[in-house]
Design a protein that fits this description.
With 378 residues, the protein is of the alpha/beta class. Helix content is 42%, strand content 11%. α1 links the parallel β1 and β2. α5 packs parallel to α6 and α6 packs parallel to α8. The longest helix is centred in the last third of the chain and has 20 residues.
Length: 378
């Protein structure tokens, strides 16, 4: 008789459809029992309502639930309807002073913790390498220089984590050189192994620093890295060479890893969501991210459950992953009750900070889109 499957839901990070927990959403959460929930603009109405949603998620799934969103600044800001415009990474880097990046991180941490979010999928550690190519990251990169990326991202991360919100470096590895947007298709990166490991890896190495730096979590990209896979197209998240050889061995990273959204075209045009979820977990990834539809979430969860029962996901593999997740949770600050007065005061600080940054920028950098590069370069 086959043994009961270990709990696989703890390795899933899932999205929910709206600003409240309706009966179908509660049923999905009870079935999957995810280790984390990701929020988007569709989940946000008011700050008080968002804080109530995250509190109810913890009531249902436990106080140690990971609740995340993407709050980089600039174009990627899930709370933009509440905060207004906040500066992006390249806008902050253009000022040349990492104190602005640290303050942006500190204010971001306070903002997210106030509404019950304890993980931010930022900062971007990609290098700006493809001017004029919309691969979704040029207006999100700190710089083309690995040292500058490390310097500004380190300041942002330390500022944010000083307020009790954990960050996540992304998109491992070499994604700044990708030729297409992974939301649509599987992009390719044609950088050499030497370039990837000397340049693109540098910000991760500096921020990890053998475990002494602030980096505790890394998101793997969906790009195909030709330097490591010259035959079949292979997304980075299912690449043993990248995950085991580069991230765990060469970099020595012992923190938590998470995929990008498995519903992106880069994955769904390459394999099924179920195949991707199992492939990522077998590859040693700790958390699989499925952001949008209940159908895809159930498919991924069922596939992982079946793989665990059949021994394709081993007890040892999952136990090692759970240990890393437990270590991450030790760094979380406890949730706190929402305060309307504190929230309004914080919004005032954020808007004054944004105004100071924007006042220092040349006009051509005050509004950015995905075609623009950082540090005033076009």
């Amino acid at each position: 008789m086959p043994k009961p499957a270990p709990e696989v839901g703890a390795h899933f990070f899932i999205g929910i459809p709206g600003p409240d927990l309706d009966p179908p959403t509660r049923a999905l959460l009870r079935t999957v029992r995810p280790g984390g929930v990701i929020l988007f603009g569709r989940n946000v109405r008011t700050a008080a309502r968002l804080a109530r949603l995250t509190a109810r998620l913890r009531d249902l799934l436990g106080e140690d639930l990971l609740v995340c969103l993407d709050h980089e600044g600039g174009r990627v800001n899930r709370l933009k309807d509440l905060t207004g415009a906040v500066p992006s990474a390249p806008q902050l880097a253009h000022l040349g002073d990492e104190r602005f990046a640290r303050e942006h991180g500190r204010l971001t941490g306070r903002l997210l913790r106030e509404v019950g979010v304890n993980v931010n999928l930022a900062p971007v550690l990609d290098l700006w390498l493809r001017p004029g190519v919309d691969n979704s990251v040029p207006d999100r990169c700190w710089s083309h220089d690995p040292r500058a990326v490390a310097r500004f991202a380190d300041a942002f991360l330390r500022g944010m984590q000083s307020e009790g919100v954990l960050g996540c470096g992304k998109h491992f590895l070499g994604y700044g050189a990708a030729d297409k947007d992974p939301h649509q298709v599987l992009p390719r990166v044609n950088r050499s192994a030497r370039e990837l490991e000397r340049e693109d890896l540098r910000p991760y190495a500096d921020l990890w620093d053998g475990g002494k730096g602030p980096l505790r979590m890394i998101m793997l990209s969906h790009a195909h890295l030709r330097a490591y896979h010259r035959g079949r197209l292979t997304p980075a998240c299912v690449s043993p060479k990248l995950m085991g050889g580069i991230l765990r061995q060469r970099l020595g990273f012992q923190g938590v890893t998470i995929t990008d959204d498995l519903e992106m075209g880069a994955i769904t045009r390459t394999m099924t969501v179920g195949e991707a979820a199992v492939g990522c977990l077998r590859n040693g990834v700790d958390l699989v991210l499925i952001c949008h539809t209940a159908k895809a979430i159930r498919e991924g969860h069922r596939a992982a459950f079946a793989a665990a029962r059949k021994g394709r996901l081993t007890d040892r593999l999952l136990a090692e992953s759970r240990a890393r997740l437990a270590g991450l949770r030790e760094d979380l600050a406890p949730a706190k009750a929402f305060s309307p007065r504190r929230w309004e005061a914080l919004l005032g600080e954020i808007r004054r900070f944004a105004a100071r940054v924007f006042a220092r920028l040349p006009d051509r950098l005050k509004v950015m889109d995905a075609r623009w590069g950082p540090i005033g370069e076009e």
